[in-house]
Amino acid sequence: MLSVIQNPPRVALPIVGSSDLFPVRRVYCVGRNYAAHAREMGADPDREPPFFFMKPADALQIVGSEPAKHIYPPKTRNYHFEIEMVAALAGGGSDIPVESALDHVYGYAVGLDMTRRDLQDEAKKMSRPWDTGKAADGSGPIGALHPVSLIGHPARGAITLTVDGETRQKGDLADMIWSVAEQVAYLSGYFDLQPGDLIFTGTPSGVGPVERGQRMVGAVEGLGDITLDVV
């Protein structure tokens, strides 16, 4: 049986130390998972349970070891960076216990949740979905995956972002409100998680706008960094 249109290629991430690829299924993103960031966005981190939104898998921009050109999207004048650690699942299921949740994680990568903040803010005010703010083409820059077999499960370490050499975001993985294991377990109560799913695990405080012509460098301790030139 033939497809009536050409099948689009499946997004796949490179893997550190291997020529194999990690095919991506879904991309989940947790909101306000660092206390200081929750406060800067006007939320109370001590009371709010986790919430998630999605990006399309083909909104990912795979970034190698060299600087990549990142296209400033249309229909925004307030385009924000959010540095995040990304967890990639090799297993899944429903109602996964917290105690075994990390058994389903294949590896970790550096990622950015790029956001058309003006469109997101407008959607919030009108109680509409965030898709136009969060799901722009290329809005999920991501580096190569580091397998758990090589690095274990990062639970602490610096997570930073610089713009033109100036530090704009600086936090520690240990400051997450909800750990990676808790995020996996919580999500699996709502979705049947599958191999190939990614979870963007939240951003520290300091999110802000970036302009054309600027260079962003996002880094997570133990996972290296990714560099993007905004064009």
UniProtKB/TrEMBL annotation:
Gene3D superfamilies: Fumarylacetoacetase-like, C-terminal domain. Keywords: Metal-binding. InterPro entries: Fumarylacetoacetase-like_C, Fumarylacetoacetase_C_sf. Pfam families: FAA_hydrolase (PF01557). It comes from the Bacteria. Residues 27-230 form the Fumarylacetoacetase-like C-terminal domain. SUPFAM superfamilies: FAH. GO terms for molecular function: acetylpyruvate hydrolase activity; metal ion binding. PANTHER family: ACYLPYRUVASE (PTHR11820), FLUTATHIONE S-TRANSFERASE (PTHR11820:SF90). This is Fumarylacetoacetase-like C-terminal domain-containing protein.
